[in-house]
């Protein structure tokens, strides 16, 4: 059974770059699409972007200028970078595997709260 | 962007009764060549990630109780929970994946 786990700093200063890694266990990254999704406190989720098993990426247009997603397939990891962060980027960040052939996601990691503050 | 609007924002239902949540897309999310609506439903309990319940508007995930059902097409969709159980207390989100991906604002389901 596939399991995903987010890791990285829980506190980032304004204007700096948020960097998170998702480690995949119990399965390979050689199939499926792999997504990052965030959820500000008390709000609904917001999709950030995906990376495919072939390395293609797709991003939320509202974040596209600040986001990059990369992967390290041998390590079974994929990563998120979000530049020039502000307090509005404070959220629980989730990684997830997309259902094959679909844009729905399952399973999700447990999530990681990232706070943007000086 | 395709905006997803859920109603109501919250509802309280007696145990064993039916709960109905609506989700409206700002434009059609039906892909005519395959006649599929690109709509998913999730359940989120406090401190947990969202759990996928339904894809393609009505296809229930393996292991999801059959009291959960999805319906609708095009722009209007419904999640129905027949015979609400205590463990169904949660926030429910719809998500479209036809044009990038966007979520609804959520509907909180409580016990009356």
Strands, helices and their partners?
The complex is a heterodimer of chains A (118) and B (112).
Chain A: E1 3-7, E2 11-12, E3 18-25, E4 33-39, E5 46-52, E6 57-59, E7 67-72, E8 77-82, E9 91-98, E10 105-108, E11 112-116
Parallel strand pairs in A: 2-11
Antiparallel strand pairs in A: 1-3, 3-8, 4-5, 4-9, 5-6, 7-8, 9-10, 9-11
Chain B: E1 4-7, E2 10-13, E3 19-25, E4 30-31, E5 36-37, E6 39-44, E7 51-55, E8 59-60, E9 68-73, E10 76-81, E11 90-96, E12 102-103, E13 107-111
Parallel strand pairs in B: 2-13
Antiparallel strand pairs in B: 1-3, 3-10, 4-5, 6-7, 6-11, 7-8, 9-10, 11-12, 11-13
Question: What does this protein structure show overall?
Answer:
The complex is a heterodimer of chains A (118) and B (112). Chain A is mostly beta strands and 118 residues long. Chain A contains no helices and eleven strands. In chain A, strands 2, 4, 5, 6, 9, 10 and 11 form a seven-stranded mixed sheet that branches. A four-stranded antiparallel sheet of chain A has the order 1-3-8-7, with no helix packed on it. In chain A, a hairpin with a 6-residue loop joins strand 4 and strand 5. Chain A is globular, with a radius of gyration of 13 Å. Chain B has no helices and 13 strands. In chain B, strands 2, 6, 7, 8, 11, 12 and 13 form a seven-stranded mixed sheet that branches. Chain B has a four-stranded antiparallel sheet with strand order 1-3-10-9, with no helix packed on it. In chain B, strands 4-5 form a two-stranded antiparallel ribbon. Chain B is globular.
Question: Which range best describes the helical content of chain A: under 10%, 10-25%, 25-40%, 40-55%, 55-70% or over 70%?
Answer: under 10%
Number of strands of chain B: 13
Number of helices of chain A: 0
Q: What average pLDDT do the residues of chain B reach? A: 97
Given the C-alpha coordinates, what overall shape of chain A results?
globular
Which residues of chain A sit in consecutive blocks of at least 5 with pLDDT less than 50? none
Number of helices of chain B: 0
Q: What percent of residues of chain A are in strands?
A: over 45%
Structural class of chain B: mainly beta
Helix content range of the residues of chain B, please? under 10%
Terminal residue distance of chain B: 36 Å
- Give start-end ranges of low-pLDDT stretches of chain B: none
Which range does the strand content of chain B fall in?
over 45%
- Element-level helix/strand string of chain A: EEEEEEEEEEE
- The ordered string of helix (H) and strand (E) elements of chain B is EEEEEEEEEEEEE
Assembly context of the chains = heterodimer
**Which two chains have the most extensive interface, and how many residues on each?**
A-B, 21 and 23 residues
């Amino acid at each position: 059974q596939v399991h995903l786990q987010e890791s990285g700093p829980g506190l980032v200063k304004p204007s700096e770059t948020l960097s998170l890694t998702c480690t995949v266990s119990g399965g390979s990254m050689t199939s499926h699409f792999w997504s990052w999704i965030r959820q500000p406190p008390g709000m609904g989720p917001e999709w950030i972007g995906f990376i495919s098993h072939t390395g293609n990426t797709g991003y939320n247009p509202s974040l596209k200028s600040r986001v990059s997603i990369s992967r390290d397939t041998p390590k079974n990891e994929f990563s998120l970078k979000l530049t020039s962060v502000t307090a509005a980027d404070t959220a629980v960040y989730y990684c997830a595997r997309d259902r094959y052939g679909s844009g729905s996601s399952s399973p999700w990691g447990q999530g990681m709260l990232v706070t943007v503050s000086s | 962007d395709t905006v997803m609007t859920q109603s109501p924002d919250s509802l309280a239902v007696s145990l064993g009764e039916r709960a109905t949540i609506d989700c409206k897309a700002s434009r059609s999310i039906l892909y005519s060549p395959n006649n599929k609506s690109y709509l998913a439903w999730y359940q989120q309990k406090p401190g947990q990630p969202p759990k996928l319940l339904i894809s393609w508007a009505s296809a229930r995930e393996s292991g999801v109780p059959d009291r959960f059902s999805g319906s609708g097409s095009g722009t209007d969709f419904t999640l129905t929970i027949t015979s609400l159980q205590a463990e169904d207390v949660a926030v429910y989100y719809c998500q479209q994946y036809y044009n990038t991906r966007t979520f609804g604002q959520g509907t909180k389901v409580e016990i009356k």
